[in-house]
Structure formats: structure tokens, C-alpha cells
Hints:
Helix content: over 70%
Distance between the termini: 14 Å
Number of strands: 0
Amino acid sequence: MEVLIGLLIIAVGSLGQSSSYVPIKKVKEWSWESFWLVQGVFAWLVFPFLGAQLAIPDGSSLTQVWSAGNSLHPVIYGMLWGVGGLTFGLSMRYLGVALGQSISLGTCSAFGTLLPAVFGGMDLFHGSGLILLIGVSVTLAGIAVIGYAGSLRAQNMTEEEKKAAVKDFALTKGLLVALLAGVMSACFNLGLESGQEILEQAKSAGASELFALNPVILLVTIGGFLTNACYCIFQNIRNKTGNDYLSVSGPVLVNNVFFCALAGLLWYSQFFGLGMGKSYFSGSPVMLAFSWSMLMSLNVIFSNIWGIVLKEWKGVGRKTVIVLITGICILIFSLIIPSF
């Protein structure tokens, strides 16, 4: 029962993340780099900071919890993940919500799940390690099937239809960007794993196990924010879009900040939910190790549901729909493999 509760919590957070790109469509008169920076302030600083406060017991402070381990490592991993975050956003731009998230998150799932296990000395060819490897392989198979559905969609669409579904659609460029995004985004989980001493310190200080991971999440997102902020400010200067923030009218500014904040909250919910969900897996090392892959699988499932809602799959043939549904079913199956 506890495993099911943990999975449901992660699923709720995943639904939030997969929905986070929808509010961005409501942002008006701002360039990509401008709204990406503003939503990043909320996604990587404001809400992670508020979440970290839930893990600080009375009489303690955030800096005291951080001092229990090397807080620089999660920040460095976060900076590497920030590169993935930048290219992740671009993958949505070139491939759409469904295909862009599918490719990026599939790569992220494999590297983010297996690398911490290998670094931790787990044998991937025997016992629990083999179960983990099988689960990740099934996840990748499901994502590959969804990726194939995306390629079928591209083949069957005219250039006008591609532009109508995704304004800047570019399959080859999008695939390369999405793969890079996935590899670098896996550094987020490596950052979480590098903060285990901080996690244990929060627990020993009296923090609820539900929120004990939040101070580590904040360190990783701070690193990611630094990378993204540098890039976005550079683009503001290069493209002369630095006046975006003040040139719009009052109502438009309020509208943009609101939807950027909403996007940031929804995005952060995936890791807030991951931390809470993992607390229910404490009795199962395999479930703990596979939790990252679970999150990525759920993100892909929900992102493709959003893709359907946003009509990104509109006009495709029956074969493409069958392939897409098959891929989603494989991902759902991958979620229950570790429980066996």
C-alpha cells in the first residue's frame, strides 16, 4: 500500500510538470529568453526555497542543514542540469510538447537512473540491479515506440500542418537538441544523490521524511538557475530584448508574471512530489533507485496526453495512433515492474 501511495504522489507531481508548458502559451509580447528567465525565478528559486523551509525544524536553519555535507556538489550538478533545462525548452519549441518531452525524458530516464546505481556500486546484471536494468529497458522501449509514433506523424504531415501544430517544427534539429537535453538533465538526479548527507542531516534534526529531500532539491535548482540566467541575459543583450520586462503594459505584465509563476509552480511540483513519494519507498532499495525512471515515465505519459489535448497529433493516421497508444501502455507497464 505504501508503494502505491508513493507512486500516486509522484504521479500528481508529474501531472503538474507535464502541464507546466501550457501556461507559457498565455505569455504575451515576451521573447523566449524573457519568459524562460522569469518562470525560472519561480521554478528554481522561489518555490524550491519555500519547499525547503518545510524541512527546517525549529531551532535550525537552512545553512545548518546544508553544512552537513558538501553542498557544492549538488550545485555543480545543477549547473550541468541547467544546460539540459535550456535545451529541454528548445526541444519543446522544435518538436512540440509530446515528442520533445518523450525523447528528452527517455534519455534522462536512462542516464539519471543507471548512473547513480553504477556509481553506488550496484551490480546491474544480478539481483536488484538486474530488476532495475530491466525496468529502465522497458521504459526506454516505451519511449522509443512513442518516438517512432512522432516520426510517423512527421512523415504524414505537410509543412503547413507541421507549422500549425508546432510553429517552429524542425525534426532533425529537435531530435539532436532533445538528446542533449536528456543527457544533461540526468545530472539532476546525480545532484540529488550527491546530497545524501544533507538529507540525513535534515532527518536527524527532526525534519519530516516527506520533506527532507527539499533542501537538496533547492541546491540543485540554484545551480540550474545560474546556468539558465546567464544564457537568458546573454540572449536579452544579443537580441535586444532586455526591455521586454518593462515595455509591456501593466495588465500584460501582470498576466505574464502570473502565468510564469504558475508554470514555475507546476514545474517544481514534480520534484516536490518525488521527494514525498520516495519517502514511502524507504523499505525497497529497488523502488528508491527506480523512482527517477518512474517520474520520467509518468512525465512522458502525461505530456503525450497534453499533446493530444493541444491537437499536436491531429490529422495523423490510424497506424500512428495505435503506435502512440502502444508506447503509452508499455510505459504504464514499466511502472509496476520493480514491484514484482
